[in-house]
Every structure is written in C-alpha cells, then in structure tokens.
Amino acid sequence: MRRRIAISVAATTVSVMLAGCGVLNATGSSDDASPTKGNDITVGLLLPEKANTRYDQFDYPIFKRKVESLTSDEGKVVYANADADAAKQESQLQQMIEDQVDVIVLDAVDSHGIADGVKKAKDAGIPVIAYDRLAEGPIDAYISFDNELVGEVQGRSLLEELGDGLDITDKIVMMNGSPTDPNAKQFKAGALSELKGKVTIAKSYDTKDWKPENAQANMTEAINEVGAENIVAVYAANDGMAGGVIKALQAAGVTDLPPVTGQDAELAAVQRIIAGEQYMSVYKSYPQEAEAAAEMAVAKIQGKDIQFDALTRDRVDSPTNKDIPSQLVPVVALTKDNIEDTVVADDIYEVSDICTAKYKAACSAIGLK
Fold it and tell me: Is 99 exposed, middle or buried (0-12, 13-18, 19+ CB in 10 A)?
C-alpha cells in the first residue's frame, strides 16, 4: 500500500531496502509485459546551474554511468546545463522535445516558469521526472532529498554549537536560497522550525540565483546594519553562499568567525570545515539520488511498472499537481567529526583531494590522513 506524505525519511529507507533486497530488479509478469522501449533509449537531463559544482562534478556523470549500465551501454544521455538562466532552460527543454528524446529528467531553474514546458513535453508523449527541485506542471515522478529536514538539521546544528548559554536576544543572519527554487522555501521553513523562539533573526535574505557573490553582498549589508560583533551565527542555505558569507565576515575584520552552516558538501566547504572557517554542511548522497533518478527514467520508458513503483513509494504535492510519485532521500549533518565516514567513505573525495598542502596540518589535527 502506498502512503501519501509530504516529507518522509522512513519511506525512503523502505525504497532503499527494497533495492538492497533485489526487489528493484524483479522480473515479474508486470515488469516484463509490453515494455515501451528497449535498451536503445535517449534520456534528456536538464540541470540548473554551474555555480554549485555538484551538478557537473557529480550528478551528471553518475546519472550517465547508471543509465549506460542499466541499458547495456545502448542508452545515451543528452545533457544540458542552464547556468541559472530560466529562459535558457526553457529553450533546452523545447529542443529536447523537438529532438524526441524518450524521457526527460529536469532540475528546474524556475519551478513555476517551467510548467508550460513540462506540459508541452507531456503533450508530446515524453515523461518528465522532476529531479532535486519539484517543478510544476504534469510531471510523472519526483526525486529529491528531504528538504525540510535539511533545514532542520542546519538550524539544529547551529543551536547545538551555540550551546546552553544561548539567549533569545542573540542575533543570527539567515542567508536563504533563490526565491524561484521551491527547495529554498523548504530549507528555510525547516530551519525556522528550529530557530524561532530561541534566537533573534536579525536579517533574512532570499538570495538571487543562489550566487555566492549575492550572498556576500547581502552579508556585507547585514554586518553594516547589525554589527559584526552582534552576529552570533549565520544560517547559509548552501556551501556556495557560505563561502560568500565567510568572505564578507573576513573583509569586515572578523577573525573569530561565528558558526556558519552550509549544504552540498562541496570540496571547498569540506576544507573550510576542516580549517574551522565553516561549522557544518549537509551531506546529501548524490550517487544515491542520481542513480535512483536514472533507474526511474529507464523503468518509466521501458514500462517496468514494478521497478518504477518500488522507486516511488512516497507522494508529494506541487502547486499544480497532487499525489506525485516520489522518492525522498535522507541527509546527514557533516562536521569535521564525520568527514571520513561520509564523503570519503562514499568516494566523493579522496583524502588527498581534501588534505592539500594548505590543509595538511588541519587534517592531521583531526586524524584525517
């Protein structure tokens, strides 16, 4: 029986357990009946930006390798990155429709603005799977992380680091993500559920296009208005913006940096965490998300209903559609204490990638070698 939920780690875990037990490779009668396509398929992958290095560095190559392995190297992935330009992504989507790809996996720059393009794909008989961000329009499935939990983990981590002496008059700055990204609203809501009533939100920004330079400018304004010495912590919704926040603090002469959150476990952020400049990030298993998205896409176009249903046991709503088949992937708070157990153990980075000459002493201090 499927359960309709807004956010669920437990249901995601069930999906992962099914994969581990071999259910996702089931070949029951429904799975074998009248597949729509064979292995010779074309999957369109539309990713949103390059400022966040994860998309080109992890999501695309992992997704591509998984599609190839699922199709005995007969399937191919057509990839386009919009570089944070919503109009460019609309054009890329239209091109994939005209090229008659078999299925599209879409991480929207503007989740609302792309809805018409999603409908055009649907009218052309091309299924669309929303990836990482919940696009509006008639999408066929959605895979992402538990976004409110991400914000909760960030907010809770700040409070834990600030400790028992925390007072409601203590001031923090919130550097939220892009207003066109529905995930940013969920991160923000999750963080506020932890922070409200415990600290004072002195300034809060919705940062255009998630750009680090915009976060840096916002933080400079916050420092000027609130005073660097009065800011006890900064909630930054992702690592790129955390880098901009830290640059603004350092430019203002702050040497004892307040705790700053992040998200995505970018290499530069991991190094900042080791160096004590950034307090934490949120590690999200890109291999798990990208590989599950590839499995969804291939199962959908090949008519493998058992596999597709096992991968999409959750249900979410968008502003335009209800009960969207989904998978929500769990997340982990990343601090200097668990770098080896997360990004190193998952082969995201080698220790040598992290512990370059500049960071060797810091790595040695935490036993990372």
Answer: exposed
Query: Angle at which helices 147-162 and 182-195 pack, to 10 degrees?
Result: 40
Distance of alpha carbon 340 from alpha carbon 218, whole angstroms: 33
Q: What is the dihedral of CA 233, 237, 242, 248, to 10 degrees?
A: -70
Quote the tokens at residue 80. 């386009």
Query: From CA 46, how far away is CA 313, in angstroms rounded?
Result: 24
Q: Is the pTM of this model over 0.85?
A: no
Site of tokens 């007969």:
74
Burial of 316 from C-beta contacts in 10 A (0-12 / 13-18 / 19+): buried
Residue with tokens 């074998």: 32
Q: Which value, in Å, is the radius of gyration of the alpha carbons in the chain?
A: 21
The pLDDT profile of the chain, 369 residues, written as one tens digit per residue, is 343 444 333 333 333 333 333 333 333 333 333 346 899 999 999 999 998 888 998 999 999 999 999 999 999 999 999 999 999 999 999 999 999 999 999 999 999 999 999 999 999 999 999 999 999 999 999 999 999 999 999 999 999 999 988 999 999 999 999 998 999 999 999 999 999 999 999 999 999 999 999 999 999 999 999 999 999 999 999 999 999 999 999 999 999 999 999 999 999 999 999 999 999 999 998 889 999 999 999 999 999 999 999 999 999 999 999 999 999 998 999 999 999 999 999 889 999 999 999 999 999 999 998
Placement of tokens 């792309």 in the chain: 114
Q: Residue 110 is encoded by which pair of tokens?
A: 């503007």
Cβ of 15: how many Cβ atoms within 10 Å?
A: 23
Written as six digits, the tokens of 136 are 């509006």
DSSP 253: T
Q: How far apart are CA 297 and CA 105, in angstroms?
A: 7
Q: Could you tell me if 207 and 172 are in contact, meaning their C-beta atoms sit under 8 angstroms apart?
A: no
